[in-house]
Amino acid sequence: MSLNIQTxxxxxxxxxxxxxxxxxxxxxxxxxxxxxxxxxxxxVIVICHALTGxxxxxxxxxxxxxxGWWDGLIGPNKAVDTNRYFVICTNVIGSCFGSTGPMSMxxxxxxxxxxxxxxxxxxxxxxxxxxxxxxxxxxxVHAIIGGSMGGMQALAFAIHYPxxxxxxxxxxxxxxxxxxxxxxxxxxxxxxxxxPDFQQGYYDPQVIKEQGLSGMxxxxxxxxxSFLSHESMMQKFGRxxxxxxxxxxxxxxxxxxxxLEYNGYNFTKWFDPLSYLYITKAINIFDISRGFxxxxxxxxxxxxxxxxxxxxxxxxxxxxxxREIAEGLESLGYKNYDYFDVESDYGxxxxxxxxxxxESYVKEALNGK
Length: 369
What we know:
The protein is 34% helix and 17% strand. The chain has helices at 122-135, 149-160, 179-193, 205-211, 214-227, 230-236, 255-267, 273-284, 295-299, 319-331, 350-353, 359-367, and strands spanning 6-12, 16-17, 23-24, 27-34, 44-48, 74-75, 80-81, 86-90, 105-106, 111-112, 141-147, 165-171, 305-311, 337-342.
């Protein structure tokens, strides 16, 4: 069967009241669906994307060869089986792939928001999605799945909309962003802000698309270091040198340097720098206990089957951060959860790359053990 990809945009004119006390209006949300919605709408699975992800989670667009970011997991007969489930992935507000973000036009002016865009939180992203689902007449879903920032959204759904999903699978994430992650994000933020081509936020997006932004590329290189691990870098690159470079050339490159350069500079041509600043801010201030007296008080809200997945060698969101959520639920006497620590040396990006290590777990969680 085909994946049946459909990409749509919904426009909202009602104000979105944000956690900061500010308002966003009007706003758009772009979303993509796969599979077919059944008659009683009981087969919906929501996929939440990470920092630089988008609504394009699976399949290939006509005339392109790049697959969606979680294509290994979502599709006909895959772990998230689109023959069986109707899958929705939305682009979060604040992003740069069609949902309202800092480079969207500020109503009623015909100028982009830029720094006038309000700070968005993970809770705001989830609230906007919830409003979208209401409009689509979807008031309860079978499951929500997300990794990294997507896992943060999944946890926010579990706490703030406890009866919305029957099952929630949160991977490679945390209950509150640690200083280690904030530090990596700081390098990226500073590199962007101090790049003269950023023009204090008043850059021409077309110029950035064509030429890239070196400050952002450097920040992204720092990010890539945190997505891997000592072991995966050793396996992937070892101490290999670029074939055409000499060891004693000052700017001769190791394979790992080449990899960072390629991924860093390439990234700046397809991701907006202001969106990067706003979304890293949302990640930095994420804390599921905000608004509650403690993490335990927040976890008391959980009412779904909650599946927590960590990866042994994730240096960005450490496996013990996920274990802390599991222990919190255990101490409350909540039994409807499962914690799985995946044997992996890959690092943080394992949730995107080592699909073979999580697919049977996801399948069992979704289909009932």
